[in-house]
Design goal:
With 506 residues, the protein is mainly alpha-helical. Helix content is 73%, strand content 1%. The chain has two domains: 400 residues, MFS general substrate transporter like domains (Growth Hormone, Chain: A); 51 residues. It has 17 helices and two strands. A two-stranded parallel sheet has the order 1-2. Helix 9 runs parallel beside helix 16. The longest helix has 32 residues. It is globular. The relative contact order is 0.17.
C-alpha cells in the first residue's frame, strides 16, 4: 500500500470579518489549488517508490536515505501552523503562491541533486513550500466559493489526495525506469501552469484581527527535538544503543522537547506558540491526536517497508512494485465516505479502532503468509485489502473526532496541530522501521520484523482510539476523504458544537 500523502490538515478558514466576496472564476481557483496539493502529495509517494533506485544511484544506505523522507516530514510538520498564521496575517494568496514557487524551486534542486546531502537539503526546501501551500489551500477555496457550493468544492479538493494515492505508485515506477530525476522534474510544468493561472484568479483574503507572528524559536526547537529523536533511532543499530552519539541524540531530543513545552507555556507577547497547550486540555482532541500519531508511525513504516520488500525480497522492478501497491490506497479512498457515515452513527473512536484492527490483521497476514517466492495474489493482495479498508475507516474518523472537539475559533489551530502530530508520527515510523530491520539475517527476516512492529503500533493506536468515544461529526457532505502521507489529513468544515473546555482557545 502506498502513501497517500494525505492532505495534511491545516487550513486556516477565512475569517468572517475579512471574507471577500466569492471569486469571479471559482472553478479555476479550485483547479489551481487542487493541482498544487496534488503535486505535494504525489511527490512524497513517488519518493517512496524511488528509494531502491536512489540507494543504488548514490551508493547510500537506507538509513542515510531515510532523511529524504524525514527531512521533508519534520520540516512540513513544524511549519504547518506557522505558515497558516503567517497567511492569516499577510494574505493567504500571497503565501500560497510563494509556497508554490518555493516548492517548484525545491523540486528543480532535487532533480539536480549531486549526492544524498544535497537531495535532503532540497527536500527541506520542498517541505517549506508544501507547508505554505497546504496551510492556505482550503482557506482559499472557502473564500472563492459561495456557501452553497463549498461542500462540492471541498469534496473535489479532498478527492485529490485519493487520486494522488492511486496514481503515485504507478507513475513513480514508470518515471524511475527512465530516471529518478524525473520524479521531481514532472512537478515543473504543472506547477508553473498553476502559478501563472493562480496569479490571475486567486482571491486575496486575510484575518485583519490577527496581529501576532509565529514563534520562530519554538519552531526551530520542535524541528531539533524530532530530528534528534529520529536520528538516534536510525543511528542506534549501527553505532550501538549505548554509544555516546546515540545517547547524546536522545538526550538532546528530550531537552529540546522540554524547551518546546516551556516556550509554548511562556510564549513572548505578540507571538503564536508552536505548540498550543490549551488545545490539549480537550480530552477527545488529545486522544485523537495521540492515536493518529501512533497509527501514522505504523502506516509510514508499512509504506516504506513494503516498497523495500517488493523490490528487494521479491525482486520487483519499480514499475511492477508501483502497480502492485495500487489496491491499498484505492480501497482507502473508496471506503472513506462510508466510514464517515458509520462513525457518525456508532462513534468515531470505535470505527477508528476497528479500522486500526483491520490494518493490524492485514499486516499480520503478511507476517504469516509471505514467503521468499513471489506470490502476489495469494500472499500479498489479501493483506492489502485489509490494510486499505482499515486506513479508510481510521483517517476519516480520527480527523472528525479531533476537529469536532473544538469550537470554530480554534479549528484552524487545531487542524494544523493535528496535522503536525500526524507528520511527526510518520517521521518516527520511518525511523523505527529502519531500526527494527537493521542487522536482520536476510530480506524476509527484516520484513517480518517490520510487520511485527507495525502490528504493535496499530494495536496501541486502536487502544487509544477506543478512549476517544463517540466524538462528534461534521456534516458528512464536507468531510474530506483521508489522504494518507507523509503529506500530506482530512480537514472537516468548521463545526458548531464545542466540547470540553475549549471556548476560549485561540
Amino acid at each position: 500500500m502506498s502513501a497517500s500523502t494525505e492532505q495534511p490538515s491545516t487550513p486556516s478558514p477565512a475569517s468572517p470579518p475579512s471574507t471577500p466576496p466569492p471569486a469571479d472564476r471559482p472553478g479555476l481557483v479550485l483547479l489551481v489549488v487542487s493541482a498544487a496539493v496534488f503535486l505535494s502529495a504525489l511527490d512524497l509517494l513517488i519518493v517512496n517508490i524511488a528509494f531502491p533506485t536512489l540507494s543504488a544511484e548514490f551508493d547510500a544506505s537506507t538509513v542515510a536515505l531515510s532523511w529524504v523522507l524525514n527531512g521533508y516530514t519534520i520540516v512540513f510538520a513544524a511549519l504547518l501552523a506557522p505558515a497558516g498564521r503567517m497567511a492569516d496575517r499577510i494574505g493567504r494568496r500571497r503565501v500560497f503562491l510563494t509556497g508554490l514557487a518555493t516548492f517548484l524551486a525545491g523540486s528543480l534542486g532535487c532533480a539536480l541533486a549531486w549526492d544524498v546531502h544535497s537531495l535532503v537539503a532540497f527536500r527541506v526546501v520542498q517541505a517549506t513550500g508544501g507547508a505554505m501551500v497546504t496551510a492556505t489551500s482550503l482557506a482559499l477555496l472557502l473564500a472563492a466559493f459561495p456557501p452553497a457550493r463549498r461542500a462540492q468544492a471541498i469534496g473535489v479538493w479532498s478527492a485529490v489526495g485519493g487520486v494522488a494515492a492511486a496514481l503515485g505508485p504507478p507513475i513513480g515506477g514508470l518515471l524511475v525506469e527512465v530516471s529518478w530525476r524525473w520524479i521531481f522534474l514532472v512537478n515543473i510544468p504543472v506547477g508553473i501552469a498553476a502559478l501563472v493561472v493562480g496569479l490571475r484568479v486567486l482571491p486575496e483574503s486575510r484575518d485583519e484581527s490577527e496581529t501576532r507572528r509565529p514563534d520562530v524559536v519554538g519552531t526551530v526547537l520542535l524541528v531539533l527535538a524530532v530530528g534528534l529523536l529520529a536520528y538516534g533511532l536510525v543511528a542506534a543499530p549501527d553505532r550501538g544503543w549505548d554509544s555516546a552519539v546515540v545517547l547524546g541524540a536522545f538526550t538532546g531530543a528530550v531537552v529540546a522537547g522540554a524547551l518546546v513545552g516551556l516556550r509554548a507555556a511562556r510564549a513572548p507577547r505578540g507571538t503564536v506558540p508552536v505548540l498550543p497547550l490549551a488545545l490539549f486540555r480537550v480530552r477527545s482532541f488529545t486522544l485523537a491526536s495521540l492515536s493518529m500519531a501512533i497509527f501514522m508511525a505504523g502506516f509510514a513504516g508499512m509504506l516504506l517497508g513494503n516498497v523495500l520488500w517488493l523490490t528487494g525480497g521479491w525482486g520487483f522492478t519499480p514499475t511492477q512494485a508501483g502497480f502492485a501497491l495500487i489496491p491499498g490506497p484505492a480501497l482507502a479512498a473508496l471506503t472513506a465516505v462510508p466510514a464517515g457515515r458509520l462513525g457518525a452513527r456508532v462513534g468515531c473512536g470505535l470505527v477508528g479502532a476497528t479500522g486500526m484492527t483491520l490494518f493490524a490483521l492485514g499486516t499480520l497476514f503478511w507476517f504469516f503468509q509471505v514467503g521468499s517466492d513471489p506470490a502476489f495474489v495469494t500472499d500479498f493482495l489479501p493483506g492489502q485489502i485489509l490494510t486499505g479498508i482499515g486506513v479508510g475507516l481510521t483517517l476519516t474518523n480520527l480527523s472528525a473526532a479531533a476537529s469536532s472537539s473544538l469550537p470554530p475559533p480554534a479549528l484552524a489551530t487545531g487542524t494544523a496541530t493535528f496535522g503536525a502530530a500526524r507528520q511527526i508520527g510518520a517521521t518516527l515510523g520511518v525511523a523505527l522501521l529502519l531500526a527494527s530491520v537493521a542487522g536482520a539475517g536476510g530480506e524476509l527476516v527484516g520484513a517480518e520484523r517490520g510487520w511485527l512492529l507495525i502490528v504493535c503500533l496499530a494495536g496501541a493506536a486502536a487502544v487509544v482510539a477506543l478512549a476517544v468515544g463517540r466524538g462528534q461529526h461534521a456534516d458528512l457532505r464536507v468531510v474530506p476523504a483521508p489522504v494518507p502521507v507523509p503529506a500530506p489529513v482530512s480537514v472537516p468544515a468548521p463545526l458548531p458544537a464545542p466540547v470540553d473546555r475549549a471556548e476560549h482557545i485561540r
